[in-house]
Amino acid sequence: PTTATPSGTAAGGNTGAPSTAVKVFSGSTSSSSYSPDMTLSKELYGAFKPTDGKGGDVSADQYVEIEALLVVGRKEEALRKAIQYGEWSLALLLGSVCGADKYQEVIRSYSASHFPASAPMHLLTLLFANSGSSAVLSTNKSGDALLMWRHNLSAIFE
To answer: Is 0.85 surpassed by the pTM of this model?
Structure first.
């Protein structure tokens, strides 16, 4: 099999079909509202099955939408879409690429949407977001933190 190179020629000098990179970036770049051709990505995600056998609730079209934003350099918008679609692992990755503040924001959003405020896992995730002190203060308001103090300390120190 021949492999297409970025110039669109097959390895060995034969003229071949445009490479994947050329096809994805074949849209017009003269405009500030550049819109890449995502046809190949749609085909790839449409046929892809996770190797762990667990498919999430995110559709192939939603992954293509996130990828299209990344391809044109709109990382923070891609991050917002990943959070909107509940694709937290991708959101954590994108948050880390966008900077420490965004990464911490993703962790706080994840923690607030997945764990009760007094739960040890809530506190533990917020510690990774450098928000541990605010987590303790916010859980104190409910009074549940006093009931869960041993669990919280064990999750952190054991």
So the answer is: no
